[in-house]
Amino acid sequence: xxxxxxxxxxxxxxxxxxxxxxxxxxxxxxxxxxxxxxxxxxxxxxxxxxxxxxxxxxxxxxxxxxxxxxxxxxxxxxxxxxxxxxxxxxxxxxxxxxxxxxxxxxxxxxxxxxxxxxxxxxxxxxxxxxxxxxxxxxxxxxxxxxxxxxxxxxxxxxxxxxxxxxxxxxxxxxxxxxxxxxxxxxxxxxxxxxxxxxxxxxxxxxxxxxxxxxxxxxxxxxxxxxxxxxxxxxxxxxxxxxxxxxxxxxxxxxxxxxxxxxxxxxxxxxxxxxxxxxxxxxxxxxxxxxxxxxxxxxxxxxxxxxxxxxxxxxxxxxxxxxxxxxxxxxxxxxxxxxxxxxxxxxxxxxxxxxxxxxxxxxxxxxxxxxxxxxxxxxxxxxxxxxxxxxxxxxxxxxxxxxxxxxxxxxxxxxxxxxxxxxxxxxxxxxxxxxxxxxxxxxxxxxxxxxxxxxxxxxxxxxxxxxxxxxxxxxxxxxx
Length: 479
Fold this sequence. Notes:
2 domains, mainly alpha, Growth Hormone, Chain: A
């Protein structure tokens, strides 16, 4: 019997430390995505000495690159992680990559190094999401999984809000390196937590399980070990052959064929892409627009991100309750339609076509009020895509449990949502950046409003489930 366990094994492999480590990793990833946005103008113009007229183009390129690399990396990371016995090491590698990428961005003396750092950050971020949630699912029992996911999602939301809010304030109040010291410290703390953490699954608990693999069918005397070893050898000789692998491959193809031929799935993915495009598009254009329209610096720009996200956090719970009570379609269609006039109003201050909104006092008030109102409506559409996908899978599992096995279905739904989210993160900056530079901020909001109107019409015509007994806390962060 092997009792040699490392020092502090009990607390180092505890659910609390596993969840805490993953939660900090997810917080760091979302924190870093938005952290760069308010201070990027300063970096491009003051440190890299680029002309202000080039700032928007490079901001668009940098954010679109992040989305594209995440889109490509997520499936590759998932494929490699499936073949890794322990998920602690890939998560540690991802965090180390994120630290190096962040340091490269902070130190970057040239554009190519800035882009290289962002690419490394994006690859590491995709790995953190995929491997982190797999580790969470593998090491937390089912009755605690919803609570653990909900805790992780709360910190993810805090990272989304905190990144752009904190960076601009630190830059203006304390300087460049004081601003970058915070994410670097968070990453160092997370690396330490990851090194301390022991993954209880494949490491030590499985050692015990392998020494007694058939507890239900093997007596407690000494002879079973021989018969158990023989049984293991026999099983290994007849492990899945090519036909078994082919059967698994066919089941996977059938799963995606069934899902992607379902209109509700396509609607849900469209919702994911549009919400992600909206959020990444606002991140892309807001700093430059506010500087041009009102002459604001990083501190006030960060405050605007805070005004957008805080109502979203406060009202996410009531919005989820409303969806449970009356269904998904009604609140979502209303949300998209209500956001159209608010988005148009957001684009009017600073535009020459609307002199009544051009005064500094009036323009600032209109812009801030519109942004807060937009953040208040956002929970009605944000998270809907992932929730709808989860509902559809529940329906389809009941019809064909052979293809739609619960655990694999949930993992595949998560990967589909991740791909849609990354696609929006790539398309949003490309669309808004080109429109902002070509026709201005107001007409950019007109184009986005047209997309919202089209999506609202499609949602109104698509059948959606009214309500199911489903804990949506874990998926409600997604677009």
